[in-house]
Amino acid sequence: MPEFKVARYRIKAEKGQHNIQQPFSAVFLSDLHNASYGDHNCRLLAAIRSADPSLVLIAGDMLTAAKDAVEMDAALELMDELTRKYPVFYANGNHEHRMKINTERYADAYERYADKIRSFGVHLIENGCERVQIGRFPLAIWGLELPGEYFYKGKMPQLTRMQITDLIGEPDASAYNILLAHHPVYAKIYAAWGADLALSGHLHGGLVRVPYLGGLISPQLRPFPRYDRGMYEITDGKRLIVSGGLGSHTIPLRINNPPQLVVIDFV
Ligand SMILES: [Fe+2]
After folding, report:
1. How many other C-beta atoms are found inside a 10 Å radius of the C-beta of residue 142?
2. What residues have a C-beta under 5 A from ligand 1, the ion?
């Protein structure tokens, strides 16, 4: 696997009468797929430390739930380390979700994983919200966990604003709403629901990046997916950041598409 690169985005965040008095940073991780950069992920941890984040946000697929095995040791170790220093907010991706619902194949692996990371102090948000204040700036951090069929190859079921509301509730009008939502393809619906900032991954940058055209393919096997890596303004200042992901699985292919650690500066 090639070495990861740091991508840094700056967001001027405001909500109602709230604006940011003291700028702060968040680190955003996605799609680690149990990768390790050096012993005990020392290089990744060093890069996170140098970003000096006030919080760590995670959009899922930190482990790999393959057909015959689950690989989660490096993910567990990273959660243990991160929670010693930072508040960590974590929403599941399709791999965690698959492990959760397919107990025939994975037995109690999800339960063990979830219990363990919660015992470290991870705020695991399974369709819900956690509220925090950074300085005096109120954040509502939402975790959206869509059913498995939203990730099937060749399919893209419809998603509506109401379905999101049924899963997680209405956004908080008095806070800056950050939605951890693994799949970026529904970015417009996330914005319509009220996500000031949606954080996604899943596409691993489209595996192969073609100059001027972007990522070649989505996991649903759609060519040149629209939201594959980077920051996008969706509507009315509502944004989406898609991480290129930190790892890979099944097809360990990344061309012109290094793994990515995202740092967001809120100003
Ligand atoms: Fe994924």
Report:
1. 28
2. 61, 93-94, 202
